[in-house]
Amino acid sequence: MSVKDQLKQIQEQVNEACERAGRNPHDVHIIAVTKYVSEARTREALEAGITHIGENRVEGGVEKRRAFPNEGTWHFIGSLQSKKVKKMIADFDYLHSLDRLSLAKEIDRRLPDGQALNCFVQVNVSGEQSKSGLKPEEVLPFIEELQTYPSIRVVGLMTMAPFVEDPEDTRWVFRELRHLRDEVQAKRFDHAPCSELSMGMSNDFIVAIEEGATFVRIGTALVGKEVD
């Protein structure tokens, strides 16, 4: 199925989820995760009207980003090593995996004065050992410490829910992240407006939207999978 047809189906699901939750569908942004597809399929996604593209790996992501220099808003959604910050910040508009001060320090060191990177702080709400991210109770102190780094702008929080058969079982994860986002937002930090929630993937984005997601990261359900 073409990306355009897949997008139409997904947008209908987004609209229905927003209607159930009393939300405006325009507040939900679909990120097409193109890690497992070619440049040609990425081109198809952009031509279908998708404006947000997500990549998990620096090398492949930078190469793909430079193939479309004036198109789309690009999100780095994978774990980021400090040694790869220099390559990443030149080509991506958002980072979804800020989870340690050493990474913030390196981003701040690499960005010119007066520039800031839009970052989501990654939170391991479920507590799974296989997942990266801060514990929920670490988030507020961490964001307070980020005031030291003027090139970091915390636009929101990100989490990954457990992969389970029934997406309904992930609802508590998304709800807890929303409550945590509200706590941060209430602090009115200048460096951390924290208005966004990056949560929900192909298997659970509907529940995530019902719980407040503003960015959903959809790969296989939208663009498919062509390579490993």
From TrEMBL:
Molecular function terms from GO: pyridoxal phosphate binding
Residues bearing PTM N6-(pyridoxal phosphate)lysine: K35
Cofactor (UniProt): pyridoxal 5'-phosphate
Boundaries of every Alanine racemase N-terminal domain copy: 7-225
Residue ranges that the Swiss-Prot or TrEMBL entry lists as coiled coil: none
Protein family: Belongs to the pyridoxal phosphate-binding protein YggS/PROSC family.
HAMAP family linked to this entry: PLP_homeostasis
Name listed for the protein in its UniProt record: Pyridoxal phosphate homeostasis protein
Organism: Halalkalibacterium halodurans (Bacillus halodurans)
Lineage of the species this protein comes from: Bacteria, Bacillati, Bacillota, Bacilli, Bacillales
